[in-house]
Amino acid sequence: MILTVTPNPSLDRTYEVPSLDRGEVIRATGDRMDPGGKGVNVSRAVAAAGAETLAVLPLGGAPGALVAQLLDEQGIKVAPVPVAGQTRSNIAVAEPDGTLTKINATGPELTSVEAELLLTAVRERSTGADWIACCGSLPRGLAPSWYADLVARAHAAGARIALDTSGPALLAALAERPDVVKPNAEELAEAVGRPLVTVGDAVKAAEELRELGARAVLASLGADGQLLVDDSGAHFASAPVDAVRSNVGAGDSSLAGFLIAGGTGATALASAVAHGAAAVQLPGSAMPTPSDLAPDAVTVTSEVPMDRVLTEPVS
């Protein structure tokens, strides 16, 4: 069972449009509404794969009630923590060429009591969990050390932690030695404070995060693929994608694939890439089912192409 923690969930509305023209009335060619937030998306991807999951998240107001309803309709168990503020609503606009414009709301401010209730909910529900996936930004009211506190408490209880966040929250949590962290290229560059131009740059940055405490680093490098750096060394994996339809939730689907496959080693990395490649070819934040996956198309190698220039270098 994979338990997910989403401190700042959302109600996500995605519109598909022929083109995004500022100042014009645009008629959408498609739209969908999904429960959102990185941890929520991991739970959705785990459920779509037919595995067991439980989503722990603070919910408030009408948007929060709708998030819970949508998750229930997808067969996902929810452990809601009621909060006084209203759950945020986000908008994404997807163009045919794969360009995605997102408008993310700030979200509610959690009180110290609500922050502690969220930690308590994780502790009470984590019994029997194979992994606890802590994902996304922290809402107002939660200090950057909140994830570090969660990792410390989870480890004390014998649980394994996958952490997908960025900035000060990521750096603060590294000291508690999360079992795996999952930055994208931009988050990885931000964490080490320098640009990433090649795959080798990403490998070195991942090694530095391990030196700071991460036991393993699963780094998404966009169209180039993914990198796993752990005690066994570095592995690089990629898969062809015919056309990018939407990358909303693709990284979360990738993390779900990694954890479903055990959360360690080259086999889990291959699963991560298969899930991520499938997700970007689906509309909105739809999560892939087993029939969407093409595992045979994934290439995994320990001979990492260190000199390969990233398709989208991070400055």
Automatic annotation (TrEMBL):
Catalytic class of the enzyme: transferase
SUPFAM superfamilies, alphabetized: Ribokinase-like
Domain spans labelled Carbohydrate kinase PfkB: 16-290
InterPro entries assigned: 1-PFruKinase (IPR022463), PfkB_dom (IPR011611), Ribokinase-like (IPR029056), Tagatose/fructose_Pkinase (IPR017583)
ATP-binding as UniProt keyword: yes
UniProt keywords, alphabetically: ATP-binding, Kinase, Nucleotide-binding, Transferase
EC number assigned by the record: 2.7.1.56
Single annotated GO MF: 1-phosphofructokinase activity
Segments traversing the membrane: none
Keyword Transcription: no
Family of this protein: Belongs to the carbohydrate kinase PfkB family.
Protein name: 1-phosphofructokinase
Organism, scientific name: Streptomyces durmitorensis
